[in-house]
Amino acid sequence: IKVAGGQGFRFYAPAMNARALERLDLERDLREAIRQGGLSLHYQPQIDLRNGQIIGAEALARWQHPRRGWVSPGDFIPVAEESGLIGPLGKWVLHEACRQNQAWQTAGLPPVTVAVNLSALQFAAYDVVDLTSAILRETGLAPEYLELELTESAAMADTLAFIEATQRLKELSISLSLDDFGTGFSSLGYLRQFRIDRLKIDQTFVNDIVQDPGSAAIVTAIINLAHSLNLAAIAEGVETEAQLQFLRAHDCDEMQGYYFSRPLPASEFEALLRSERLL
Ligand code: C2E
Ligand code: CA
Ligand code: CA
Ligand code: CA
C-alpha cells in the first residue's frame, strides 16, 4: 500500500508495518516508564536447603503498562536491548534493588543478598564495574549483599573481557552467579577462570528431574561440578516437594521457586522476612 507521508509517498509492507509500529509504541512507553517510575521490582526468596532460611532474593523487573496491563520481562527486556534502553533500565534496576536492600537492613531486618540480572548486552555495552561501584556508594549497601546474575551468553560473547570484568567485580566483594546454567554450552574449560560464586541450575532441568532421568543426571552433574570447583549450586523453578527432596538428596545448596514463594512485591517480601525472624 501507499500512504501519504509528510512529503510525498512512502511504501509500507502492511504486516511488517503493524509489528514495527507496535514495537515503536512499546519502546516509547518503556522509555516513559523508566523515566516516570512505571517499573517496579518483585523479590523472590532464595532458600538455604540446609536450614530452610531465606538467604537472599532475586530482584525481577515488572512493568505495569497503562493500557496493556502487566508486561512480562520476557517481552520488554528484548525491546530494551534492541533500543538501547537496557542501559537506563539496568541502571534503574540495580539502583532500586540496592536501595531497597539497604533500607531493609537499616530497618533491622535479617540481612539478605539481593541478586540482580544483567543481560549479556548490558554486560558488553556498559561498564558494569563502574556502574555497580557508583551505585553501591550512592545507596550505602555493603557489596557482600549484592549478587549479579550473569549469563553464559555474556561469557561467550567476549570471554576475555568477561573474565576480566568478573575479576574486577570480585575485587569489589560482590557475589556473582552464572544464570540459566546448562543451557548455554559455554566451554567448561573457562569455568574455573570465571571468578564466580554459584551456578544457577536452569529451571527447565529442575522441572523434569522427577520424570526424566536425563534431566536428573544433568542436575546431579551440575551440582557435582559446582562443588568440585568450590562453587555453590542453586536450583531455580522448584515447584514441588518431590523436586525439593531430589535436590536435598543430591546435596544442592540453595533453591528458589514457586514451591517456597512466587516473586513478591517489596512490602510482601519484607513481611516474609519479618515473620522469619519471629520463628
Ligand atoms: P530468570 O533470570 O531465569 O528468572 C527466573 C524466572 O522464572 C522469573 O520470570 C521468575 O518469576 C520465574 N520463576 C521463578 N520461580 C518459578 C517456578 O517455580 N516456576 C516457574 N515456572 N517459573 C518460576 P520473570 O520474572 O518473568 O523473568 C523472566 C526473565 O526476564 C528472567 O529470567 C530474566 O532473564 C529476565 N529479567 C527479569 N528481570 C530482569 C532485569 O531486571 N534485568 C534483566 N537484564 N533481565 C531481567
Ligand atoms: Ca536470573
Ligand atoms: Ca534463570
Ligand atoms: Ca531464564
In short:
With 279 residues, the chain is α/β, with parallel strands linked by helices. The chain is built from twelve helices and twelve strands. Residues 23-277 form the EAL domain.
Bound ligands:
ligand C2E, calcium ion
Arrangement of strands in the largest sheet: 3-4-6-7-8-9-10-11
Characterize the overall form: globular
Structural class: alpha/beta
- H/E topology pattern: EEHEEEHHEHHEHHEHEHHEHEEH
- What's the N-to-C terminus distance? 67 Å
Largest sheet descriptor: 8 strands, mixed, barrel
Oligomeric state: single chain
Radius of gyration: 21 Å
Beta-strand content bin:
15-25%
Mean of pLDDT: 91
Secondary structure tally: strands? 12
- Low-pLDDT runs of 5+ residues are 1-8
Domain EAL: 23-277
Protein name: cyclic-guanylate-specific phosphodiesterase
Describe the structure.
The chain is α/β, with parallel strands linked by helices and 279 residues long. Helix content is 50%, strand content 23%. It is built from 12 helices and 12 strands. The protein has helices at residues 14-36, 73-83, 86-106, 120-125, 128-139, 152-157, 159-171, 188-191, 203-208, 213-228, 241-249, 266-278; strands spanning 2-4, 9-11, 39-48, 54-65, 69-71, 113-117, 146-151, 175-181, 198-201, 232-236, 254-256, 264-265. The strands form 2 sheets. Strands 3-4-6-7-8-9-10-11 form an 8-stranded mixed beta barrel, surrounded by 5 helices. Helix 1 packs across helix 2 (73-83) and helix 3 runs parallel beside helix 5 (128-139). The longest helix has 23 residues, at 14-36. The model is unreliable at 1-8 (pLDDT under 50). The structure holds ligand C2E and calcium ion (3 copies). Ligand C2E binds next to strand 4, helix 2 and strand 8. This is cyclic-guanylate-specific phosphodiesterase. Residues 23-277 form the EAL domain. One of its GO terms (molecular function) is cyclic-guanylate-specific phosphodiesterase activity. It comes from Thiocystis violascens (strain ATCC 17096 / DSM 198 / 6111) (Chromatium violascens).
